[in-house]
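User: Can you write out an input/output pair for a complex, sequences first and structure second?

Assistant: Here is one pair. Inputs:
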Amino acid sequence: QQPVQSPQAVILREGEDAVINCSSSKALYSVHWYRQKHGEAPVFLMILLKGGEQKGHEKISASFNEKKQQSSLYLTASQLSYSGTYFCGTERNRDDKIIFGKGTRLHILP
Amino acid sequence: NAGVMQNPRHLVRRRGQEARLRCSPMKGHSHVYWYRQLPEEGLKFMVYLQKENIIDESGMPKERFSAEFPKEGPSILRIQQVVRGDSAAYFCASSPFDTQYFGPGTRLTVL
């Protein structure tokens, strides 16, 4: 089951905050977050495991609500370099395949 | 420690030809995944392999597509008798267990 991401696209000015959501209809073992810039490979941001703590560093963090099967990615005081498409991927069991959402396109304006 | 390597980076084939895409995982990684990405779309899972074993191929089309990860050498994604609809970016990712690290991708164009 493909996770659902929202919003589909966001336009922000530099310095503003953003929240990207990812939800699944199935119980999850983990949620993975990646950022992909145009023409490049997806780059790993963080993984949140069932029973784990909120992750993050400085201005990019994420949470995982196991009861609701939802994860949110928080981008604080966005920088131009944050522009790209953000994908969440969900895993139902350990060592299972990751199913990715359709992505959220983030565009940061100077 | 070199990252995940894929070659070729760009591949052009005519309809009916075969395409072979190679992926060398990061050192020490025994899991390889292949994904297909169409322009402006997400990553679609194709196949998950460990050395000499196909663990999950539920995302692979039943015909023309095959994948292997031999004991020695890179993982190969093979597409026989390519059609225009096969044009896409194909990414592989390798993993030690939880986190997947992506290669730069192979952009396949079918004329």
